[in-house]
Write a structure and sequence with these properties.
Layout (H helix, E strand, L loop, with lengths): L17 H5 L11 H17 L10 E5 L18 E6 L2 H10 L4 E5 L13 E6 L10 H11 E11 L5 H5 L10 E4 L11 E4 L1 H7 L4 E7 L8 E7 L6 H5 L6 H24 L5 H19 L5
Parallel strand pairs: 1-2, 1-4, 2-3, 4-5
Antiparallel strand pairs: 5-9, 6-7, 8-9
Helix pairs in contact: 8-9
């Protein structure tokens, strides 16, 4: 999904089993790890390029939030000679493999699906979260505040998001930021299927994420098949989770996005019902629950 020029090979570190490589969206075909290696190198370059000009590595503490088996971390071997790198993921098998094969210099730990992380306040200078908030639905504000908690004051968050470049791919429709705020698709999918899919507009990110972070760069990722990128500094005093989620009733795009998301989920529900006569009741319930949450948010600000 990332489209950047790949640099030269930067690591001779061990490669994970094909099953673990595939869990981060880089399937191994015919025994070839080309996609896994290429994307990992590209993401390394994306992160390094996003850092401020005065950034230096010595003494820094870094977290790869949602690291998998270390697809990106493994390309930071040179930087790990000067800085401390950790990675976390909900997938224990990936973390076990990382600690068995890439530690040292990279140390991994397992996190739960909900905060907190087992780390103290003000613990990291840099956190990146790539292809993570693209799949977090109900807990996005809690996790954003948790990353704020473990960052030092003014610490840097680099995060990817799906916007204009992914609309056709994941929503089957052309991009229109007047009807996209934070729109959740495939709410029925469990993590074994990749989890929910989340589209976000830059205006929505600046409005909501901007309540906890100073957004210093926002690359929209408008080319087909690409993700956008957020570079942000932690504000000194973060708001509550409720304040992060608060909908500005005077912003017409907020209401339009909620209404459009309801229509999107209704189409998904109808399509599942038509194609899967024996769809699992739990999946139907998840979609219905997502529709109810959106309905409640919308009707709190404007009559249906």
């Amino acid at each position: 999904m990332w489209q950047y020029s790949a640099g030269p090979a930067m690591t001779d570190a061990a490669l994970p089993p094909a099953e673990l490589a595939g869990r981060v969206g880089s399937p191994v075909g015919g025994g070839s790890y080309d996609a896994y290696e290429t994307v990992g190198r590209q993401l390394h370059d994306v992160i390094v390029t996003a850092l401020p000009p005065n950034w230096t590595w010595p003494g820094k503490r870094v977290l790869d939030f949602g690291c998998g088996a270390g697809r990106t971390l493994r390309h930071f071997t040179a930087e790990a000679a000067e800085a401390s790198f950790e990675g976390c993921d909900i997938d224990r098998l990936s973390i076990d493999w990382l600690n068995a094969h890439l530690n040292p210099p990279f140390q991994g730990f397992v996190n739960d699906e909900a905060p907190p992380l087992p780390r103290p306040d003000d613990n990291y200078d840099l956190v990146w979260a790539l292809s993570v908030f693209t799949h977090i639905a109900d807990l996005w504000s809690a996790w954003l505040l948790e990353l704020h908690r473990v960052l030092v004051p003014g610490g840097i968050l680099v995060a990817s998001f799906m916007g204009a470049g992914m609309s056709e791919t994941v929503a089957g429709e052309s991009w229109d930021d007047t009807r996209i705020g934070m729109n959740i698709l495939k709410a029925h999918q469990g993590w074994d299927m990749g989890g929910p899919v989340v589209l976000m507009s830059p205006w929505w990110i600046r409005e909501h994420w901007g309540r906890a972070f100073n957004i210093v760069a926002l690359h929209e990722g408008a080319s087909p098949g690409t993700h956008g990128l957020i570079v942000a500094h932690a504000k000194e005093e973060p708001p509550s989770s409720g304040e992060l989620e608060r909908v500005d009733g005077t912003e017409p795009r907020e209401v339009a996005a909620l209404r459009h998301n309801i229509r999107q989920l209704q189409r998904e529900s109808a399509a599942l019902g038509a194609s899967l006569a024996n769809v699992e009741s739990s999946r139907s319930w998840r979609i219905a629950a997502a529709l109810r949450r959106l309905r409640d948010r919308l009707t709190a600000y404007v009559p249906m």
